[in-house]
Amino acid sequence: xxxxxxxxxxxxxxxxxxxxTESLWETPExxxxxxxxxxxLSSVLRDAGFDVTEGLGGMPTAFSATYGExxxxxxxxxxxxxxxxxxxxxxxxxxxxxxxxPGHGCGHNLFGVAGVGAALAAKRAIDDGRAEGTVTFxxxxxxxxxxxxxxxxxxxxxxxxxxxxxxxxxxxxxxxMAQTLAMNSVEYTFHGESAHAADSPQSGRSALDAVELxxxxxxxxxxxxxxxxxxxxxxxxxxGAPNVVPAEATAWFYVRAPTRGEVDRITDWLDDVAxxxxxxxxxxxxxxxxxxxxxxxxxxxxxxxxxxxxRLAGPIPxxxxxxxxxxxxxxxxxxxxxxxxxxxxxEDRREAARSSVLxxxxxxxxxxxxxxxxxxxxxxxxxxxxTAQFWAASWxxxxxxxxxxxVAANGSFGSKAAVYAAKVLAATTLDLFSDEALVASAxxxxxxxxxxxYESALPEGTEPPFHLTL
Length: 470
Description:
GO terms for molecular function: dipeptidase activity; para-aminobenzoyl-glutamate hydrolase activity. The protein has helices at residues 4-12, 14-26, 35-47, 108-127, 148-154, 207-221, 260-281, 300-313, 320-330, 335-342, 347-354, 378-382, 404-410, 414-434, 436-449; strands at 51-54, 63-68, 73-79, 134-140, 163-170, 174-176, 182-191, 230-237, 248-257, 284-293, 387-393.
C-alpha cells in the first residue's frame, strides 16, 4: 500500500506532536498518578472528535479514544508514566531539574504521543474516504510497575480488537520479537510486637527478623527454579530505630519466569516460605498482591508489516547537531555498558552499531526465539488479540533505558523518533484496514501460537496499587 499521504499527514502534525513530547517531558508523573499527562493526550483526541472513555480498569488515568466504525478494529497502545529519581536537564552531564524528582528515562513522553499521532492520521484517512474501520488509542498508565494494561485487560478493554500495535524507544530500530517474562508483584508484611531491644527484648517479636528469614529462604529457592526465572526483592519498611524491636516490616518481591504457570508455582512456594518465617519468629504475615502479567507473544505477520513500514518511513532524520549531542551523551557511558547493549545484535550488525552514535535505520528483528529478561504488560494484550511492537532509535547507541542519559535524549532529539513511530503505527493500521488477508493471517497465527485462553492473573478483588510511587 502506498503510504505517502499517511506520512504527509503525520508530518503536518509534527509541530503539535513534538510540543506534546516536550510537555510530557517537562511534567513527568509517576504511574497511576499521571493526571496531567493523561488529560493532555485524551483532550487532544477528544477535541479531534474521538469518543473518549476514562477510568478504565478502575484507574483514573487510563482511557480509550475511539474513532470510526465497523471492522477491523485496531488498537494502538500508548504510555506516559515516568520513573522516580531520574530528573535531568537536556545536558551531557548529570544535572537534575529537581533533585529526587521523576524523569522520563524510558521515553514514555515519546511513546504515548506517537500513538496519538498515529490515531489522528488514521482518522484523517477515514474522513478522506481512503480507509474504513475503527481505531482506538489506549492510554495505558503505570507500565513501569506493570499495572495499567493488566487491570484494563481484566476489565475487557482489549476484547473487541482485531489487532493491537505499539512501540518503544530504544537505541536501535527493529521489530520487537522476543518473548518476555511473566511476572507477579507481591508484598509480604509481617506483624510482631515492639519492645525495648536492649532492656526487654524477650517481650518483642521482630517483624524484621521474619523479613530477613523470608529473603534468606528465597535465596535457597533459586537452585530449584528454571535458569530463566528471576526472584528479586526490596525491604520498603524495615522498622525504625535500632533500639526498638520492629513491630512491622515489609518485603516486596517480583517473581518472573517464562510462563504464567511457573510464576504461579514459584509464588505459591514463596507464600509458604513467608508462612514459615512467621512461624519461626512468632509473628503473623499478610500478603498484598499488586499485579501479575503474562509473557509477550509476538505476532510475526503483524511484525513483518511493521518492518516494511519502518523501512518506508525511515531513516529517522537526525541532524549533525543531534549526533553531536548524542556523542556527548555516549561518552558518559562506560565501554562495558555499550558493549553489553550492542552484543545483543547478530555478529554481522555489531560493528556498524559500534561505529555509530545514532543508528536510525530499521533493521530486521534480532531477537526472534530469545527470552528477554524483563517483563511488559503488553504481554497480557498479546494473549487477547494479535499484537506487534517495535523498537525505534531514540537514544545514543548503547544507552540503557532508565538512565539520565536516556532522559536527556528523550527531551531533545528523541522527539523525532516519536514522529517516525507515528508514521509506522499509522501505516500499519491502514494496512490492516485495507487488507483482509493480513487480518486473517494475524488471527490464524495468534490462535496457533498463544498457548491457552487468557485469564487475568489478578486475584479476585485486587485493586490498582495507588500507594506505590514507582
